[in-house]
Amino acid sequence: MKTLQRTTLLLAAAAGAFALAGCQNLSSPVVRFDRQVNYGDAKAVELVTNEFGSTDLQMIAEKMTGSLLETGIFQGRPTVTISTVRNKTSEYIDTTNVMNSIQTALVKSGKVRFVRSIREMQAGVDELQRQNQSGLYKQSSTAKLGNMTAAKYQMEGELTSIVKQSASTKDVYYKFTLKLFDVEEGTIEWQDEKEIRKTSKR
Q1: Is 192 among the domain residues?
Q2: In which domain, by residue range, is 154 found?
Q3: Which long-range contacts (CB under 8 A, 24 or more apart) does 65-69 make?
């Protein structure tokens, strides 16, 4: 009889332990890590390879933004659109990311307004058509056709590189060029470039 009571108590304790473990798993799941992960400084110099990296992007954005704002060309908060930014290097580089950083800094300065780029325009056209042609919205609340603000200036750029390599050394030279055109007159109102050289040894 005592043996039966002891067995019953052990089974009850085991069931309680399993139930408690189940509750713990529901309230605080266990996260397992295969490797150690740490947050780093997003502004720290990145020198993992001599390919185009985050530090290069940041240097280009800071140089172009500072140069543009120093010119005083943005009187009265003119409108700007971003056209093509060509990647003429042998690497895959997201030039849109570079231009996003430049655009963000310029918008935050409060001295310029950006209108939709060619790449972004279709989304705007689709939204206008949806509001005006679907019959779903009050006419008094829809965005009217023909009221978009045109760009006074158009921004174009390109990224090029020259790579030289020997048995022990690899040298990569980057040059980012950015131009600001007056849309109506077709004139270049501003232009600047940023050069970056990166060398690695084996």
Answers
A1: yes
A2: 54-115+150-201
A3: 65/102, 65/105, 65/106, 65/109, 67/190, 67/192, 68/106, 68/180, 68/190, 68/192, 69/106, 69/109, 69/111
pLDDT tens series, the chain, 202 aa: 555 555 555 555 555 555 555 555 555 676 666 677 767 666 666 555 667 878 889 999 999 999 999 999 999 999 999 998 899 999 998 899 999 999 999 999 999 999 999 889 899 999 999 999 999 999 999 999 999 999 999 999 999 999 988 888 989 999 999 999 999 999 999 999 999 998 988 7
* 122: Cα separation from own chain's centroid: 20
The count of domains in the chain is 1
| Within a domain: 43 | no
The model's pTM:
0.74
**What CATH number is given to the structural domain containing 94?**
3.40.50.10610
Give the DSSP letter of residue 31: -
Q: Which residues contact 88 (CB under 8 A, 6 or more apart)?
A: 158, 159, 160, 161
Question: Considering the domain boundaries, does residue 42 fall inside one?
Answer: no
In a domain, 167, yes or no: yes
91 residue type, one letter? E
